[in-house]
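Sequence in, structure out.
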Amino acid sequence: MGAEGTDEAKTTYREAMREALREALRSDDRVFLMGEDVGRYGGCFGVSLGLLEEFGPERVRDTPLSESAFVGAGIGAALSGLRPIVEIMTVNFSLLALDQILNNAATLLHMSGGQLPVPLVIRMTTGAGRQLAAQHSHSLEGWYAHIPGIRVLAPATLEDARHMLAPALADPDPVLIFEHGSLYNVSGELHTPTTPVDLDHAAIRRPGTDISLITYGGSLPKALAAADELTAESVNAEVIDLRTLRPLDDAAITASVARTHRAVVIDEAWRTGSLAAEVSARIAEESFYDLDAPVERVCSAEVPMPYARRLEEAALPQVADIVAAAHRAVD
């Protein structure tokens, strides 16, 4: 047993997500998984490996190479009373289904006067750092966080990877889950929570008093590493994991800034028009008089993501960039 009476088990982010899918398929006959190579191949990143053999081809469905078609099929299934989980290999490919997501999934409940809920979950891999070049490496979740009518999740921990799916499936609105590709191999102790995972609130991953490092997804480990470096330099950084990108937890952000009076927002997307820009604007609107320094932003370079490893590393936010931004705010 772990701390506070919770069970602990050694696992990886990939395995935690797989177990979440397995639990969903076992607990509700309406749930099925569909997407490219999710069946016999086990998913492009191995998340659904073994589920076809366990649940059969009716519940784990390989689809044709057409994101618009199979996301549309998922919307239709959700409208018919099923609980589909649609996997899109990478966020870049989701743009081929953007018409279905924006013009159908996100709008039908509103346009039907509440008569047509779309309880659909769409999972996709996001982010860079794996030398997959520009067409497989961008962080576009901020685009989706712009859209009313959907919920946008970014699980960054083993616990969130394991336990966010169940409440997402229970949501009457479409839910998009962004899984950063760099997290799949992360391993550690998985703590079983005593209460359901809260999709409405950000999480304080590390308390602090001197500066708030606000981030999500694949940038969370970098923010925590930066906080460790700052501690060695007598700067006590608080790390906020947004977890849910739409709707944002404004109260958690403003409460953190009220404690620390400084903020760095870390976002792997491009700086212009980014989620980091939105968070920074909200801090300026709601916490201006709590700030002792301008809000800092650490984002990716404004270029298509390079393939070459050194160029990719140079384009991405790194721990040293976060530490430097914190020092600009604190010093």
